[in-house]
């Protein structure tokens, strides 16, 4: 699976209309909708802000006033063709006075997203189970030793009243079983699934 590393923006002009495509990494529908709202506010003077997104909990698109099927659908088709996930595309159009027709709009919105995808840094990602370990500071040495010995990856560490590690096993092993012998010392629980870069 693929995604983009960072947000990127590109611009094309078609018969005096300006098309600005913004690609933003997003993981959920809620995150996509928040990003879309932000861009609609930022470009509130634009003629249209058309959108498409593919994220972990679904996908969607919106023509934002353009004739049905001429903007959002071509945009999401470009994302699908490039096998991109966890990404939101917003194409902002400033009308230049010359109508493009349905075919011209499809080509313009498709090209706008294709140009941005071509400029983006693409990452290969995979979905993994991520577990959260919560333990006392006195058990850091035990946990770190098991992490090293079992070739696990810690993707996040937090230090407050207790220590918290987010751990992923990239070979599919059940992390709960690795730490079950420390029951009482280490609180182990399934956290969620995350898309991580496949290095």
UniProtKB/TrEMBL annotation:
Kindly list the GO CC terms recorded for this protein.
cytoplasm
Identify the residues that the record assigns to the Impact N-terminal domain, covering every copy: 15-117
User: Please, which domain of life does this record's source organism belong to?
Assistant: Archaea
Q: Which SUPFAM superfamilies match?
A: Ribosomal protein S5 domain 2-like
**Transmembrane intervals:** none
Q: A GO term (biological process) for this protein?
A: regulation of translational initiation
The protein's matches in Gene3D superfamilies, at most eight in alphabetical order, are given as:
Impact, N-terminal domain (3.30.230.30)
| InterPro entries on file | Impact (IPR023582), Impact_N (IPR001498), Impact_N_sf (IPR036956), Impact_YigZ-like (IPR015796), Ribosomal_Su5_D2-typ_SF (IPR020568), UPF0029_Impact_CS (IPR020569)
Q: Which family does it belong to?
A: Belongs to the IMPACT family.
User: What is the name of the protein in this document?
Assistant: Putative YigZ family protein
């Amino acid at each position: 699976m693929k995604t983009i590393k960072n947000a990127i923006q590109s611009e094309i002009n078609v018969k005096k209309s300006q098309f600005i495509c913004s690609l933003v990494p997003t993981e959920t529908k809620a995150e996509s909708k928040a990003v879309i709202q932000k861009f609609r506010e930022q470009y509130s003077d634009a003629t249209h802000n058309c959108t498409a997104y593919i994220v972990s909990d679904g996908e969607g698109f919106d023509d934002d006033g353009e004739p049905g099927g001429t903007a959002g659908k071509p945009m999401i088709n470009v994302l699908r063709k490039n096998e991109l996930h966890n990404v939101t595309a917003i194409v902002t159009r400033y009308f230049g006075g010359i109508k493009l027709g349905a075919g011209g709009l499809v080509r313009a919105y498709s090209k706008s997203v294709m140009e941005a995808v071509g400029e983006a840094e693409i990452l290969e990602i995979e979905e993994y189970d991520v577990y959260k370990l919560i333990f006392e500071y006195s058990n850091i040495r035990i946990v770190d030793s098991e992490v090293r010995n079992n070739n696990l990856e810690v993707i996040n560490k937090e230090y407050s009243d207790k220590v918290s590690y987010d751990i992923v096993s990239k070979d599919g092993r059940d992390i709960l079983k690795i730490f079950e012998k420390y029951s009482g010392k280490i609180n182990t629980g399934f956290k969620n699934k995350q898309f991580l870069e496949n290095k």
